[in-house]
């Protein structure tokens, strides 16, 4: 296991939704911010990686377990740890906890290093990841299996143009943006009575400025399946009915 880094955080108004819950996209964005802070403290900032190796970090997969979404103005603690890595993939966990130490959100993420020039995945260099004290492993962790494209023959569709506001510092669509596009396809009344309890996201290909997002959505019970641009990004959201203001049913 690697070095742990913690940061206290108060949920601001602009990261809260219509139901006073922290937006899932904000949770993902803040997680990236916290990991970046740890990297900077360890001398491995995004600037350092870019200037020395012409590389940048990219998240390719998330698995998120939600016990309860943080609420507006709530004081929480966020902890992260780069747990392990192999020759192509790095694995990092995040834990969002309330003031009593109860776990609210758990995130398992998979990262790669990409060339800024070729936009291709590069090997993980020991020199880059050594300060994190994460374990070097040989095996590749098995990814989640998403619905194939043929499952979306009877589905809802939407088109989202990729504008400047959707881009991050690496020049492609910010990974948190895809969740908003997926969840925005779901009926408002359903969102009032349901909250996500589990989430899987996989980014297969980056999408750049000026392109269009072709979004598809199908349902399997209380699980919504989302496919963007013929599988360039895949999302699966497990929903549960709200039972009280602080929790959702299992």
From TrEMBL:
Protein name: Acyl-[acyl-carrier-protein] thioesterase
Gene3D superfamilies: Hotdog Thioesterase
Domain Acyl-ACP thioesterase-like C-terminal: from-to ranges: 152-222
Family: Belongs to the acyl-ACP thioesterase family.
Gene Ontology MF, one: fatty acyl-[ACP] hydrolase activity
UniProt KW keywords: Fatty acid biosynthesis, Fatty acid metabolism, Hydrolase, Lipid biosynthesis, Lipid metabolism, Transit peptide
Organism: Lactococcus allomyrinae
Pfam family of the protein (one): Acyl-ACP_TE_C
UniProt-listed InterPro entries: Acyl-ACP_TE_C, Acyl-ACP_thioesterase_NHD, FATA/B, HotDog_dom_sf
Domain Acyl-ACP thioesterase N-terminal hotdog: 2-132
